[in-house]
Design brief:
two-stranded antiparallel ribbon, disordered N terminus, 8% strand, 8 helices, 7 strands
């Protein structure tokens, strides 16, 4: 199972709610959801509508995943309780919000919010030069928590990569769980918005190794089908995970 590196953005509990003044002079208290999505490292999250979370139908099956602290975690998300300093509950709160988030972003409302984030390159861009800075989308390799970290999917080259460091991520140090976004989201998203389908990657001439201007014949590489080089599905997942 994926190792837990801790929740830096929430450790020690949530700070006092922030207030801002509206046009009519009244103060508006920042909700937990607003606060959480603004934390460094949480740029991939969108704000799940409170009404969506309050609908018990949308929470079906999550109580069994979170455990006995489910109600307390839900109350924290809905601003009915304060965030404690207990690291276990803090992690469970993030897990609960993340799993709700994975369901929300496959709804029309959630996809509209994620579209705006994609347009602003909040998820980063494809690292391949031939994709010409194609915006990417977050994706999980598995739908279960604690299996693998979040990856990003490029609809242009149809490949997945580690999130860009510019979004606060650093390769294997990714702490966001892939289950917070799920395996379905980016593909359903592209089906929902066909106008966002990019053209195929730019074709480039294959690179030819040369020494002093002469072509070089490189030694043969191991076959991809060799037993020592084939990666199983589990190995692919493990390579994207954070290990102890």
């Amino acid at each position: 199972r994926r190792a837990r590196a801790g929740v830096a953005s929430m450790s020690g509990g949530r700070a006092a709610p922030l207030s801002s003044s509206s046009d009519n002079g009244s103060s508006v208290v920042e909700s937990w959801i607003e606060w959480f999505c603004k934390q460094e490292g949480n740029e991939f999250f969108c704000e799940v509508d409170r009404r969506y979370i309050e609908d018990n139908f949308n929470l079906y099956g999550l109580r069994e995943i979170i455990g006995s602290n489910f109600k307390q975690c839900l109350d924290i998300i809905l601003d009915r309780a304060d965030t404690p300093s207990n690291e276990v509950i803090i992690r469970q709160v993030q897990d609960l919000y993340g799993l709700i988030h994975a369901r929300f972003i496959i709804t029309k409302r959630g996809q509209d919010k994620m579209r705006r984030k994609m347009k602003e390159n909040d998820f980063g861009i494809c690292p391949r030069l031939t994709c010409e800075q194609q915006p990417v989308l977050p994706v999980g390799l598995k739908d279960d928590i604690e299996v693998s970290g979040v990856m990003v999917y490029c609809p242009r080259c149809n490949e997945v990569y580690f999130p860009a460091s510019r979004c606060g991520y650093n390769g294997a140090d990714v702490d966001l769980d892939g289950a917070y976004f799920g395996t379905t989201f980016p593909h359903l998203f592209m089906m929902q918005f066909p106008d966002l389908w990019p053209s195929p990657p730019v074709k480039v001439e294959p690179y030819v190794p040369r020494v002093f201007g002469f072509k070089v014949r490189l030694p043969p590489r191991p076959s991809l089908m060799d037993d020592d080089t084939v990666m199983s599905d589990k190995a692919v997942v493990d390579s994207a995970a954070v290990h102890k």
